[in-house]
């Protein structure tokens, strides 16, 4: 009789395994995420990251979990320098801020972030030789990689309302490129009916930047991709001014990032 019971239990195990396994995996991952976050990172976030300080207690916990999740998923390496856990936390914070309100965001086209101690140069067919850079993502040889200047990253978190942020800027490029095109239109985040008005708004706002009639940096005048990155940085860094000077742009960015920043 007992043998039938064993057979019955084995059949039940194989029938339900696929149903319960994802829950088990998710439980294990959550345990790992909670253990991974170091208490001293909390003080560091309080000291450096205004976005974190604006969150309520539950959201702060969620932000910390997302930091751990990011650090478990991606490699961060120093080039010509050793890097600390704090450096890595600031890279992760730059990645988490723009996608904080999305429940399961994953930077599909990223594996490794390389941190240079300061501004850097690289050989790239699209760049004049010797161009000094603070951040870079892209296609071709740059696929899966992001380059960042650590000095620029720390300065970005020290100056809160200047509308400049090297880390968030580069992650916004990756968000834009998720649909395969760096064109300032993150198709996966905009309802289809908004795409045409968004493209028209981009052109109108780029003209304002190029005519010095905008709070966005001149870099946004370059093209639609740089405009998207710079307007996103302003949205997270300088929301009051963006809303008062560019209310239409602010409203669409609110829709794209599913959040109010003020
Ligand atoms: Zn850029």
Topology (SSEs and partners):
Layout (H helix, E strand, L loop, with lengths): L1 H35 L2 H10 L1 H4 L3 H17 L1 E4 L6 H15 L10 E7 L18 E2 L7 E6 H9 L7 H12 L14 H19 L13 H14 L1 H7 L1 H11 L5
Parallel strand pairs: 1-2, 2-4
Antiparallel strand pairs: 3-4
Zinc ion binds next to helix 7 and helix 9.
Structure, explained:
The termini are far apart. The protein has 262 residues and is of the alpha/beta class. The longest helix has 35 residues, at 2-36. The mean pLDDT is 90. The protein is built from 11 helices and 4 strands. The chain has a 4-stranded mixed beta sheet. It has a domain at 179-262: Collagenase (Catalytic Domain) (3-Layer(aba) Sandwich), CATH 3.40.390. Helix 4 crosses helix 5 and helix 10 crosses helix 11 (247-257). Helix 5 (85-99) links the parallel strand 1 (75-78) and strand 2. It binds zinc ion. Zinc ion (ZN) binds at residues 169, 173, 226, 229.
Strand order of the largest sheet: 1-2-4-3
State the order of secondary-structure elements, H for helix, E for strand: HHHHEHEEEHHHHHH
SS-based class = alpha/beta
Uncertain segments = none
Please count the helical segments. 11
Percentage of residues in strands: 5-15%
Under the CATH scheme, the architecture of the domain at 179-262 is 3-Layer(aba) Sandwich
Estimate the mean pLDDT confidence: 90
Silhouette: globular
Task: Please tally the β strands and state the result.
Answer: 4
Helix content, binned percent? 55-70%
Which class of the domain at 179-262 in CATH terms? Answer: Alpha Beta
**What is the CATH superfamily of the domain at 179-262?**
Collagenase (Catalytic Domain)
* CATH fold group of the domain at 179-262: Collagenase (Catalytic Domain)
Spell out which ligands are present. zinc ion
Biggest sheet, open or closed, and with what strands and sense?
4 strands, mixed
